Amino acid sequence: MITSKNLTKKFGTKVAVDSVSLTLEPGHIYAMLGPNGSGKTTWMKMAAALMKPTSGEILFNGNPVGVESRKQIAYMSTEPYFYSWMSIKDVGRYYQDFFMDFSPEKYESLLRKMELEPSMKTRALSSGMMAKLKIAVTMARNARIYLLDEPFNGIDLLARDEIRACILQEAAADNILVLSSHLVEEMEAISDQAIFIKNGKLVEVRDLEEMRTEEQISMADRYRAIYGHAEVE
Amino acid sequence: MNYDPMTPIWLQVATQIKQQIVTGVLPPGAKLPGGRDLAVQYGINPNTAARIYQEMEREGVCETKRGLGTFVTEDTAVVCRLREEMACQAVKRFLADTKSLGLKKDEILALIQKEEDLNDNK
Hints:
CATH architecture of the largest domain in chain B: Orthogonal Bundle
Largest interface: A-B, 25 and 18 residues
Number of helices of chain A: 9
Oligomer: heterodimer
Structural class of chain A: alpha/beta
Order of helices and strands of chain B: HHHEEHH
Largest sheet of chain B: 2 strands, antiparallel
CATH topology of chain A: Rossmann fold
């Protein structure tokens, strides 16, 4: 379980995350939504203990996040973070050195499913292949929480299908997945909860099937209602 | 699969599976995929997948055998009833559509006959 209590992050005078309080429970895939600059990445980086809050706190199973929680919380950032001389196989070794919960067997199996050749150098990868590699190496950890920042952006339909399958394969009753995206349509069917963030503030957390049943509205409809008349990207 | 995001996803997938049951693609007693496989296959949340089997079980269309998985019911009477229900719904949708165009019953019947004849001559 992850609990964000009045979590706030300021960069100078800009408030990136503004007093966000919410609790995320195991057994769910959360879609974290909001236009660019709404604070999704900053929230994730604090949850991953890669950035300290200005005020408020973020707890993993009741304890503040830090060195210990990092062993059980896997985070995938938007920017690629591998050295260009590394092969796909090296990327796995690199992760294995860093994370106790990294499973080389799981990594190999994910690479096979995603049709990634272990001997390939990361500098030779297309953006779709890089996106798949990032997912494979992140999901190869047996973490309790997976924070995936923009897993579907800038990649073709087929790579998206493979990434979606990988995410659904790993979702379980005892783990939490948080996926940030502004590709709302991509998230409709795979997530069951939506977290709407606007200008750093939490607007609401909604159960998607409940929303469809009770109000006959989609996540995209709700997104439009919250963020104004701008078209959903 | 493309979903209508304004309609519960579990309902849309359950309807598809039921179609496969009434058409015999999934015969009585057939083993259905496990919850996780169903989620991956249809690209849906695992909780949605679990809900599909819960609802279908409640309707008697499938049953879960502990440790073995979920199976299509072997009760052919249930499948027959399901087929009738789904046919009835399809006809209701069709009538609502054609009546909204202002067609009368005899016109609708004549149109069905005409389309059928065209199909037969193909």
